[in-house]
Amino acid sequence: MNMHPARDPSWVKNQNSPRDSPRPFTRFQAHPSPKSILATYYFNMPKAPKFRKFAAVKKMINPNDARLKSNQLAEEEKKKKAEEAEKKHVAPTPTSMFLTHNTALAPPYRVLVDTNFLNLSLTNRIDLIKGMLDCLYAKAIPCVSDCVLAELEKLGTRYRLALNLARDPRVERLPCSHRGTYADDCIVQRVTAHRCYIVATCDRGLRRRLRKIPGVPLMFIKRKQYAIERLPIQDCRLENKPGLLDFTASLIFFTIPNLSRVELPFPL
């Protein structure tokens, strides 16, 4: 005969604690009255949330909210004024520029060096001075700004060799007056103001920005050697190679009609 678990001594012994043993139902739990059923239902039934009355709460919109028509009209006026200012503003053309040809670029060249250019030069085992000499066929003076040095110092021990290369006495130091250590904006502003630099960088975003500025050549690393972009034809590279200059002149002669009547600065 199966006994109640509370009265079975073998079951009580097997339990870890006397609290684990189930307690028998009381008389009211075994046979609840209708009043107790209604009371439990009343106290356990869900209650509707209480809200304050609508008239008691005054809802107001923020005066700076963008959904207000007055704020929308003010934003449109600001945009129109900014567009008109951009249309009226014309950047002054440097006196050294003849169309896209920059006459201020002449040896010894001043090369403005970027952070990643120094690091990738060491990665590809390229000597900075010798590589520029092989690329430009003329003397080049690498220049480093204060923000580039600050970037290299922030990058830590991984860029320690690049920092030592930037501190070389053969590298010219350019002071910066702006806040922060972001070098890309500094390089763009410096090159826009003074078109006498060749910018050496491997950053595609920075090169895309610099291509919009006429007369600024770009130097980058290609196949473990330095390559130049947008350097004018009247450069010492062609002067040291007369065959290439003759080929370029003959190409111009055959592509442009009636060129024989025009006096050229070089013989054909």
From TrEMBL:
Residues 75-89 have a biased composition (Basic and acidic residues). It is found in: Nucleus, Nucleolus. InterPro entries: Fcf1/UTP23, Fcf1_PIN, PIN-like_dom_sf, PIN_dom. Coiled coil: none annotated. Keywords: Nucleus, Ribosome biogenesis, rRNA processing. Residues 1-31, 71-90 are annotated as: Disordered. GO terms for biological process: rRNA processing. One of its GO terms (molecular function) is RNA nuclease activity. One of its GO terms (cellular component) is small-subunit processome. Residues 109-208 form the PIN domain. Belongs to the UTP23/FCF1 family. FCF1 subfamily. PANTHER family: RRNA-PROCESSING PROTEIN UTP23 HOMOLOG. This is PIN domain-containing protein. It comes from Puccinia striiformis.
